[in-house]
Inverse folding.
């Protein structure tokens, strides 16, 4: 039912848990990226470590877990960069963006056996160029850069 005028009809909502995006910066200020095969586009994408927030888990804890699982990096939790609705037309969930500072390689890439991932770091200007060039097409990665810029994070 529509909130304002009580219109009725069939509306479909995808019910998923909240997500987190780990915006991890190395001690040199580079951003940690992950390259993953994505079935939706049947190709590899460059993006930021991200995933579902487990029940009872805080966004910060989920960001640390996803960063380590997908890239093998660990770091110092910073602050929330913001919370966005990834697709409010179809989903009620939120996406939390968590800054992680001083991210360094720590161990092996782990996580889901169905994930095929590789990690690397690039400078923030290089990452912005990748977005402009179409090398990074994941909307949440683009949003993360906007949140970094808005907060004045270098």
């Amino acid at each position: 039912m529509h909130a304002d005028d009580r219109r009725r009809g069939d509306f479909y909502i995808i019910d998923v848990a909240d997500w987190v995006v780990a915006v991890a910066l190395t001690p040199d200020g580079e951003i940690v990226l992950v390259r993953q095969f994505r079935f939706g586009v049947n190709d590899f994408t460059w993006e930021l470590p991200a995933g579902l927030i487990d029940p009872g888990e805080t966004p910060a804890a989920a960001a640390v877990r996803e960063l380590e699982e997908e890239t093998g990096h660990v770091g110092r939790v910073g602050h929330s960069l913001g919370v966005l609705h990834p697709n409010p037309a179809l989903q009620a969930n939120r996406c939390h963006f968590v800054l992680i500072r001083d991210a360094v390689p720590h161990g092996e890439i782990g996580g889901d056996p169905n994930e095929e991932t590789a990690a690397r770091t690039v400078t923030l200007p290089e990452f912005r160029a990748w977005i402009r060039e179409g090398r990074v097409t994941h909307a949440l990665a683009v949003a993360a850069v906007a949140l970094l810029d808005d907060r004045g994070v270098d």
